[in-house]
Amino acid sequence: MSVLEKFGVEIFTQHNIFERISVDKPFRPDNPAFIFVKTGSIKLKQHFRDLELSANMFMVTDPQTVYEMISISDDFQSRMVSYKREFISALSLKFNRLITYRYFRQQMNIGVPFEPDELEVVWKSVNFLKYILDSETEMTYKKEIVEHLFSVFCYQMAGIISKEDSNSMSQMSRQEEIVFIFLNDLAQNHTHERSVEFYAQRQSITTRHLSAVVKEITGKSASQIVSLIVMNEAKVLLNSSNKPVSEISGILGFSDPYSFSHFFKKHLGESPSQYRNQFEN
C-alpha cells in the first residue's frame, strides 16, 4: 500500500516529481496537490496558457487539469503535497472554498507569490510531515499525528491564501463565475460534448454571450478551449497508455477513428500515431 493510500497524504521532492514527469509530455495528476518552489523556476503549460513558477511561489494542481512541463532550471528546489480529496473534506468549508477560488484564479494568472518568511514556515511544516511519513520508527498514533500535522499545514495555507486574496476572495465576478462553471463543465463532459451550444445551455445563456465572456477573461474563444482540452486528453491517452487509436477515438466521443485523426491532425499538424511514435523512439 502506498503512503498516499495509507495516510491520505504524500510529500514529494523535486527528485520524486521528475521521476514521474518528463519535459514536453502532457500529464494529469492522480490527486490534487500543492506545489511549492523554494529556488529556481519551472514553466508549465496549463489549460490554455503557460504558467511559470519561480522562487517563493506556489500553485494548486487538480486531477481535472492536464499539464505539460516545458522547462525547468538547474537550481529548482520544490515540494509537492499530494493528498486524497476525501482526506481534506473534514476540514472547514471555508478552507475548501479558498482552495477552489485560488485554483480558479490560477487558471487566469501566474502562480501565487509567498513572502519568503511565510514560505520558510510552510517549508518546515511540510518537511516535518514528510519526516514523519518516511519514518520507519514504530509510532502508535502515526496516522493521527499525520492528520494533525496536515491540518496545521492546511490552516497555514488558508491563512496565507485568504490574506493574499483579501476582500476579492469572497466572490467571483459574474464573468469569472461563468468561465469557472464552463471550465468545470468542460472537464466533466468533454469526452462526449464538444459543442459550445451545450455548455451555454448548461448555464442558460446564449452561445454568443458565453463565447464573448470566455474570450474576454481567457483571451481564447470557447471553441478553442474545448479543442485544447480534448487535445490534451488525447495526448495523455496516447502517451500514457497502450490503447489503440481506434479505442481512444471512442473514449473521446468521436464517431470513428478517421474523425479523431482528422481533428488531431488539424490541431497539431501530425496524426495520433505520429505523435505517439515520438515518445516510443
Automatic annotation (TrEMBL):
<keyword id="KW-0805">Transcription regulation</keyword>
<dbReference type="Pfam" id="PF12833">
    <property type="entry name" value="HTH_18"/>
</dbReference>
<dbReference type="InterPro" id="IPR020449">
    <property type="entry name" value="Tscrpt_reg_AraC-type_HTH"/>
</dbReference>
<dbReference type="InterPro" id="IPR009057">
    <property type="entry name" value="Homeodomain-like_sf"/>
</dbReference>
<protein>
    <submittedName>
        <fullName>AraC family transcriptional regulator</fullName>
    </submittedName>
</protein>
<keyword id="KW-0804">Transcription</keyword>
<feature type="domain" description="HTH araC/xylS-type">
    <location>
        <begin position="176"/>
        <end position="278"/>
    </location>
</feature>
<keyword id="KW-0238">DNA-binding</keyword>
<dbReference type="InterPro" id="IPR018060">
    <property type="entry name" value="HTH_AraC"/>
</dbReference>
